[in-house]
Amino acid sequence: MDPSARCGGLLTDKYELTMLAAALRDGTADRRTGFEMFARRLPEARRYGVVAGTDRLLAALPDFAFDDAAVRLVEEFLDPATVDFLRDFRFRGDIDGYAEGELFFAESPVLSVRGTFAECVVLETLILSIFNYDTAIASAAARMVGAADGRPLIEMGSRRTHEQAAVAAARAAFLAGFAGTSNLEAHRRFGVPVLGTSAHAFTLLHTGADGESAAFRAQVAAQGVDTTLLVDTYDVTTGVANAVAAAGPELGAVRIDSGELAVLAQQVRDQLDRLGATGTKIVVSGDLDEYAIAALRAAPVDSYGVGTALVTGSGVPTAGFVYKLVEVDGHPVHKRSTGKQSRGGGKQALRLARASGTVTEEVVYPAGRPPVLDGPARTLTIPLVRGGEVVAATGTPALAAARERVAAGLHSLPWEGLKLAHGEPAIPTRLAL
What we know:
Blueprint: H1 14-26, E1 32-39, E2 49-50, H2 54-60, H3 68-74, H4 80-87, E3 94-98, E4 103-104, E5 111-116, H5 117-121, H6 124-148, E6 153-155, H7 163-175, E7 180-181, H8 184-190, H9 200-205, H10 211-223, E8 228-230, H11 236-247, E9 253-256, H12 261-274, E10 281-285, H13 290-295, E11 303-306, H14 308-311, E12 321-328, E13 331-332, E14 347-353, E15 359-366, E16 377-379, E17 381-386, E18 389-390, H15 395-412, E19 429-431
Parallel strand pairs: 6-7, 6-11, 8-9, 9-10, 10-11, 15-19
Antiparallel strand pairs: 1-5, 1-12, 2-4, 3-5, 3-17, 12-13, 14-15, 14-16, 17-18
InterPro entries: Aldolase_TIM, N/Namide_PRibTrfase, NAPRTase_N, Nic_PRibTrfase-Fam, Nic_PRibTrfase_pncB, Nicotinate_pribotase-like_C
Function: Catalyzes the first step in the biosynthesis of NAD from nicotinic acid, the ATP-dependent synthesis of beta-nicotinate D-ribonucleotide from nicotinate and 5-phospho-D-ribose 1-phosphate.
EC number: 6.3.4.21
């Protein structure tokens, strides 16, 4: 593939460009507008969401342009004036939003984009594609982190999704509290700690009566006794015995990837202790989600490997964000479609808390006009882009801060807001509009 064909400007939908063409033709393209990204409601079974994707959007904005290859493509259906506009396109507007890692709820104004109609409308698909996926993964990951109750989780779902989605999923999971990922590109691109040892194929490669033991000895020779040996290729009890024989009682960990994990974990723990490997940890994997992790809380499991459920949002593959025009030339505009209404005007938000730090309510209000409130409150909306230039922190420091923000946000929720069962949002949203 010609690398020039992979330009950022084509990460959009055709209808955004046909709207642009019509607006340029009738003179409305330069009207000052405000767009907002929000979720009308939280997805079912979600009591909160975790904002993720902010840093990826800020990194993508400078590359959202139309090079010669892109221009040749859009010339197939656009008039010359629109093509000339796109040839020189750069976003020069302003963006405000929730900091990455903040929790959000229904109607939270997670992102506000201001500029001309022409420059704001073409960003819709880019914004939604990044935030809807990353946020869905981070929200699912946060539930898993809560279910793990302090025990580490490893993201290992790269083989269950698109190759680029896998990288985004690894970052979103780490942001939400996972210890690391198996994905090397996520490590290179975002600095996510990378983890992994071997799969069943390595054991099966070593054929013969002593095949499993030979595989374990080879892995220990290559990686040291602190490695993790996969013990369920044949028989778990025999596998554990072979693992300790190969590495000695200082073996780092064993992994179980199938079967009744709670029962097997207890049996393996007892066997390891009898063999003197009291410090050897137990890692479990195999179609885990937050409910399976919670069910294993009483089992002697030290860490979890999570794949398919994580990279598909654990049943909620999108955050449900929409991107709507809410203001034109300083005047609010509303969408009244049944079941898909939008509230006009730019908005900001505050979050109220008790003196203990437990949050009680989110208040959404007209931008620049905060309500008078009793008790501690924290402003959620921060500047991200001014005049097309990124003004927020980005990169590795921003990811570390977002990780801390998620942990603090979850700690601030009332205890019932952390339940995995279906129910009301963790805190109510009040619209002071």
